[in-house]
Design a protein that fits this description.
The chain has 113 residues and is mainly β. It has no helices and 9 strands.
Length: 113
């Protein structure tokens, strides 16, 4: 039906997803933590990602995320209930498949029980 000579075609919902400008690994919080900590990261383009946790000796403890990820902001939680107190490292490795750029960052976290 028209109103004042204008036709209405209904409404449309648009979802807006912001895209980061650069790769980022934000500081895990809380840190020190018990028993879980949250890690936020950003990918400016689709990337082959590995987000992992290592102990002080460099042994892989777990993967928080891995695989092909689209551009965007992400958050992962590490539940370290089964691990002992100590220093651990969160490592992000991302390979931008469009520009062939890579990003790597490591941060120290401390589990206190």
């Amino acid at each position: 039906k028209s109103k004042n000579g204008l036709l209405s075609s209904g409404s449309m919902t648009l979802d807006y997803t912001p895209t980061p400008d650069k790769f980022e690994l934000n500081q895990a919080y809380p840190n020190p933590f018990n028993p879980s900590t949250t890690v936020q990261y950003a990918l400016p383009t689709s990337s082959d990602l590995t987000l992992s946790v290592y102990d002080i000796r460099g042994r892989l403890m777990t993967y928080l995320s891995r695989g092909i990820m689209s551009a965007g902001y992400y958050e992962e939680v590490w539940d370290a209930t089964q691990y002992s107190s100590g220093i651990y490292f969160i490592r992000i490795q991302a390979y931008d498949m469009l520009d062939k750029n890579s990003f790597e960052s490591v941060q120290k976290i401390m589990l206190v029980k």
